[in-house]
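Example 3.2
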Amino acid sequence: MKARPSSSSGQEGPNQYQRVAAGIVRAGIFAAVLSLLLSPSAPLAAQTGKAKDIALILRAKGRVQKVPAGKKRALRARKGDRLHSGDIIRTGRNSQASLIFTDDKSLVKLRPQSQLVIKGKREKKNVKKTLFMRLGTLWAKVTKGNLFRVETPSGVAAVKGTEFEVSIDQSGTMTVTCFEGIVELFNRHGKIEIKANMRGELTAEQAPEAKEWSGRDDEIRIKFEKDGEVKWLIIKFKNKTSEQE
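Structure, written as tokens:
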């Protein structure tokens, strides 16, 4: 009887052809994975991690449009739509939109005939928020401790937890009204801080100026002093001809 050939180690193992075939299969799999990861058409999540939204639309009343970042075509904005950094929101005549940031629940309301670019940079658990507005009006209530900026061609309003309103008209006049907290208002000509019940104005050619604010058209504010502190009694009334929240 002929002796059965054995491997050099004295144990049975795959022959030379099996080892070569297995190596070819492994090399083919590795090459395919590497090609997929390096391909320009590879999924974004596989290269840089899935992009996260920074805000969502709570309300869209009337003609509200959304232009996704990097796109030109405007889409109809709907309640529940998620927003990413670079997205544009537009409101038409007699239209409004309400947004909420997903990290800290800061609120923004965009008034009629306004356009807003939403920008956000994630820093750990929070989003560093910057809103750019060329025309229109927005109201914002910002969660304390988080940096929030509204930029216009005329200047910047920076806050850390407050309630305020920013508007910019066709002449380029930027008006900032502070309802609560402190707003820092600045441009290349100067910088001021406005506190609750104050209003600041500026243009691209002039430094910001502050003045006391007497209240909206749909309310009356009465100033009084109690326990050594200045307080305000606010009486609101409904105006059928004006838009309500």
